[in-house]
Amino acid sequence: MAPAAANPWLVALVAVVVVLGSAAVAGWQTGWPRAIFGAQKAALDSPSSGVPPASPPAPVTPASSSASVPVTPNPQTPGAAGADPATVVQAYFGAINDHDYQTAWDLGGKNTGSSYPEFVQGFSATANDTVTILSLDGNDATARLVAEQDDGTAKTFQGTYTVTSGVITHFDVTQTG
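RE: above sequence
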């Protein structure tokens, strides 16, 4: 007795599922398109997931130590009540570094006193922002920011970011260098 021939429709269906599944995973990995995949892969990776972050972590200095300890920004619930100030501030600058200005706007950029186009334009010469959390006090995160410019120079800022319900509601930040 000869072995049963595979149903050609079943073979075709399996091939289509494999191709579409591979395309979906590849698209999700690259963040394309955001309308379909929603959140970026980097936003879903966390230290507890066992998956390395998609970009280098931002340094964070704990209040009890003078050494920088790399911590991956973990925007688990940016904009949600209960998100701690350090997480929100890190997510805010992570979104700016990713040129995801709408997320940065939603995380508090709308409270800077500028319009959305002015907000985006403000980062036009910035290559990368590195934020270091210096201390936490209730809803306030005191941080130092080094903004590396496209021309190779750096601007340093320091101040307090007040976070309410997962959104930066007040910026008390000045340029220090």
